[in-house]
Each structure stands twice: as C-alpha cells, then as structure tokens.
Sequence to fold (626 residues):
Amino acid sequence: MNGPLLDYDRLGPMFDRVVADGQQRRQAALGQVRANLLQAQAPAPPRRVWWPLVAAPALLAAALLIGWWWLAAQDLSYTIDGEQQKVGLWISADQRQTNLEFSNGAEVVFRRGTKGRVTRTTTDEAQLLVESGQIWIHDPSAHDPSAPDHSETVWWSVTTGPYELRGTGADIELQWLPEQEVLHVEVREGRVELRGPAFEPPPLVQSGESLDVRAGEMTRRRVAERSDGEPSGEPMPSVTPPDQEPGLESAGDERGPSHRTGNSRRRRTAAGGGGATDDWRALARREDYAASFALVEGKLDAMLRSANAADLMRLADVARFSGHPKPATEALLAFRKRFPRHRDAATAAYTLGLIRDSAGSAAQAERWFATAVKEKPRGRLHRSALGRLIKSAQQAGHTSRARTAAQTYLERYPEGPHAELAERIGSQ
Amino acid sequence: MVSHPAFFRDETAFLDALKQRHAGAVGYFFDRYHRRVDRTLCAVLGPDAEIPDLVQEVFTRALASIPRFRGDFAQLEGWITRIAVYTARTQIRRRRTARRWTSRTPTDQTAVPDPQASPEIVDALRRAYALIERLPVKERIPFVLRTMDQMKLEEVAAACEISLATTKRRLQSARARLDRHAQSDPVLVDWLRRGPSS
Fold:
C-alpha cells in the first residue's frame, strides 16, 4: 500500500462545518474584540480645567451651527432633467432611463426598468440603493489611482440585494436581478470593493475587471479592450429589451449612454422599428436619429438658446448621426458657450474635433483635440483626444506638434490604441 | 460600527492610516481579516472557547508591529496569518505548561459543540484533535493548516516561515505518526479510512 493509511483530506470539510457554524456564534464576542481594539486606539481624554466648562457650550453650539451650515451647503446634490431632487426620492425608470446629474459633475444613470434611490449624500460620498436593475456611474472627478492628488474624489456606495459596493471610479456599471439573484459589477475605470455573504475577504474589482455573482459562485473576468481602446466586456443580462439596451461606446467615442454613438448601431434605422412618437429624445434613445432630427429641425435656434446641457449634447448627436454636421457643430458650440465649466465641455471639444476631422479639416480638428487634451488632462477622453491629436497634427503638416503629442502619448499610454502611430511618428 | 470608507484613497494611504492607528483603518483592518485569523486559530488549536481572546491577542500584536511592516497591502493577509500561527503556537505551549500543573486534558479546552453540526462530525473532529495534540508542534501546525484549513503548500510554508521542502517533509512525518496513533481509535479510523488502493 502506498501513502498514509487514512485520508486526512476528509478532515477539512468536517472542520469547515463545525468551525463555520462556530464563527457565527462567536460574532458577538468578536464584535466586543473589535470594540476593545478601537477603544485601545482612542486618545486619552484631556485633563479637566474649570473655565472651558463655562465657555465651551456656547462655543460648541456656535461651531456646530456654522459647521452644519457649511456642510449642508456643501453636500453633494443631484438633478434629474435639470430639476433639483431630494435625497430619498424614489426613482423608478419605468419608461426610460433616468439620468441623475450630481453637483460634482458625476452622472448616475438608472437604466430603463431600474428602481432605487439616493439614500444619503455628504461632501464626498453618495450612497445609493438599487432595488433592481442596472446603473452606470460616470464620475469624471475620479482620478487615475496612480495620480497623487485624490482630493476631489467622491466615494460611491451602492446597496443592492445582500451586497454593498463601495469605491471610486470614473466608469462603473452594476446590475442586480433579484429574481435570479444575479449580481454583475463591471469597472472600466476605478476600483470598488464588494461586500456580501460569504465574501471573505471582500473582493476588489479594479479597472478593466468585471465580477459576476450567481448562486453564490463568483466569476471574475477581464473586460477586454477592443482594438480602438474601448472596453467591451461580456454582455450583461439585460433588464430592457435588447434593441433598447444602451450598450457600450464604439470606436473613438468617449461618451456615456446619454450620448451614444456606434457604427453598428447607427446602421439600425427606425423605419417602423420602434413606433413613432412625438418625443425626439425617445427616438434618439432608440437611435432613430433621422426621425428625431426631423422633429427638432424647425426649433433649432430656440433649442440652441434654451435647451439644457444634456439636451444640447443629445441634439448634437442626433444631428451628427443623421448626417447634419452643421447643426451638430452649432449645438456643440452653444454647449461650450453656455456651459463652459460643465464636465462635458471637453467632450464637446473632442466631438467638434471628430466633426472637423470627418470634414477633412485637419487643422481645425487638431485645434479641437488639443483643447480637449488641455481641458481633460487624464482619463479615457484624454487618451483618445491625444491619439487623434497626433493624427490630425500630422495630417495638417504640423510635424513637431505631432511628434510632441506622440512622445506624451507613449509616456502616458504605451499600450494605448494609438501607440503604434505614436511610435511611427516619434521615429520620423 | 463606525462609518468609514471601505478603503482609503489607495492602499498606501490605508497602510499609512493603519500605522498611525486611524480608527477607521483599524476597524477596516479587523473587519477584513478577523475571519481569517479566527479560522487559523481554530485550525491549529481546535474549536476552543478562548478563540475570541486569542483573536484579540493577534490583532493587538499586529497593531503593535504594524509600524515596522514593510510590505504592501497584498501581503497583509499572509503577515497577519503568520502572527496568528505564532499566537497559536504560544497558546499550545501555555496549555502544555498548564497541564503539567493541573489535571486538565486537551479535550477540556474544546468549545461546546455547535448544535447545528452533526454529533458524529463533532465527535470525529474531537477525536482527530486528540491525536493531533500528540504531534510535535513543528509537525502539528503545518498539518492542521494543510488538512483543516486546506491551505496550499506554499501558503503553509509562508505561514510557518519554513521552506516548501521542509513543509512537505513535516507533513509526511505528521501523517506517518498519526497513522500509528490512529490505530488506538477505531472510530476515527472508520471516519478517515481510505478506499482500497489499486
């Protein structure tokens, strides 16, 4: 006979049963251990002197009042369709997706069919509850984790089902299907920690990763980048009909689902596809850009003057993808003029660069891409704009500018989609 | 529970905060690793009523040593596991010293069986630990980490701060020793008997 007489591997599962159960019973004792540890770290109380007892209450009250006022004035707030909303408001995106625009420039999109609410905000944290459905967090204030200055970063906490997700990030998607008990988390840029039953330690999901939890099984995947640099993970289980699923951006575009583009999607026409409505936004969401533009064509001047930021960007998309670059340009210029400090101002500059590039105006495209690079010094938009800047500068005959941009690109994004072009130009 | 960010702006900031005994960082450190520590202690010592006190001892040691910790965030788990093993080893020595002065037997330390687990399993585990108690400490610890805690060989080696070759040697020696001792406990043998070898 070879090896030991007894199969000691049988001990492990027995141990699991007994110890796992025991851990639950020890939780109260372990909670006390935690409290003891924190108590031991607390600083010693100060010695008493008599006079602060007299002055302290008044000073404290004043400080609290000022502090409350200051904090209350600084907590994150959000709007829906340009209207300020209260924390705690129930949001049910039954008919269409709902965009929550936060005061720090972030956007949280409740995809169609999603239900939930913003439960709390502070100066640097927003907490959400997602009862069911899918949300997308787009937060341009989130910095590249490798950058030294994180002072503006907002923390996002999302409670959904038995799970809690906490982290920071520019591009995070989460979906919870309560009937199937399926959770999907995709982080295209950022980092989150996921807490939940049987997660020990809590898994981290970082840029370029997704995590699926189904029947207690966790599967982690890389979100593979397409050759144009846009991420494309596995398709997520959808709460909306596939032909209305927002989906991912396509080649060269850095914008989120409010401003969807896509060669493949562009080819889908609406001829009878979704049913006609008099809501140009709904047609735009269904990517029936021709029909959508037809509804607004007679109102362009008024819209350029009075539409809100989201509508102006939507109008630019509608015009561009229905083959009307001039109104698209006007919408984007109006956007930059009326909302110069909006988080999408750089995106508008980038899109103007795309339009000029398509029109063969390399020099003008170069100027707009350079503006986008300057206004968005990090993140995916920066990478795309810098890549296109190299190309348009070269096409415009501005060789030294192209070389400078190429050098910067290779330093920052050695594996980026324009790295090959940058190397070629850098070596000329 | 004190509300705090799940982790700080990055892992380096978290480690810095932990070294400065930031309450949020200490709380998070405990939340993240206490189950690991609890499990390691239970594996080495067996289910024991003193485990929560020993968990506290592990974390107290860790927090005292954290200013000298030079690793990165990913190495924290392995580091605290080593502290747990060290604490468990110390506890084994304390028990043996206590036994010289009292009439307590190893099974006196085992916790009250959990009513959820089947009595047969609890009994089999208790018998196994009674045999494991007879192993030399340097064989016992790698053995329980491998069989009870189901660590990989490399993890066992790291937790015990020995080489992989030494780990394998000690495991083999522990199994051979237990095979001999087990003959005195037919109930345990019945639980652990292999199928017929081909």
About this structure: DSSP finds nine helices and no strands in chain B. The first helix of chain B runs from residue 11 to 19.
